[in-house]
């Protein structure tokens, strides 16, 4: 999927994300439910913020790939964290993991700090919207 990137100059230059992406006509929309760091056993075993980030993003990509897509088909990520300070402290490591899984594709993103997530022990939940050919 080839998105048109939209970054208005008046909003400044984003780093590690884009303000908007326009999908080409005719694509199929994929809405990926929020994914936490739940593993194949149905439990969250990772305790560190970065390890949970990696598993949650990997889980999003499993859904996208199973649907016939690639990371480049993702147009939007919404990331929920229970500890904004932990996210900010881990940005460098998160960036490395992100590039390992997503490459240099940066969709529109939102990051929201929440009080709690449904899965016990979850520090991060990521949902996605993709457009498949």
Would you mind describing this structure in some detail?
With 133 residues, the protein is of the alpha+beta class. The chain has a single domain, classed as 60s Ribosomal Protein L30, Chain: A (2-Layer Sandwich). The protein is built from three helices and six strands; from the N terminus they run E-E-E-H-E-H-H-E-E. It is globular.
**Number of structural units classed as domains:** 1
Count of discrete alpha- or pi-helical segments spanning 4 or more residues: 3
CATH topology name, in short, is: 60s Ribosomal Protein L30, Chain: A
Indicate the overall shape: globular
Which structural class best describes the helix and strand composition? Answer: alpha+beta
Main beta sheet strand tally, sense and closure:
4 strands, mixed
Proportion of residues in helical segments: 25-40%
Order of the strands making up the biggest sheet? 3-6-4-5
For CATH, the homologous superfamily is named as: RutC-like
Q: pLDDT below 50 for ≥5 consecutive residues: which ranges?
A: none
Radius of gyration: 15 Å
**Amino- and carboxy-terminal Cα gap:** 6 Å
Q: At CATH's second level, what is the architecture? A: 2-Layer Sandwich
Task: Provide a compact summary of the structure.
The protein is an alpha+beta fold and 133 residues long. It has helices at residues 49-66, 84-89, 91-102, and strands spanning 4-6, 20-22, 28-35, 74-81, 108-113, 124-132.
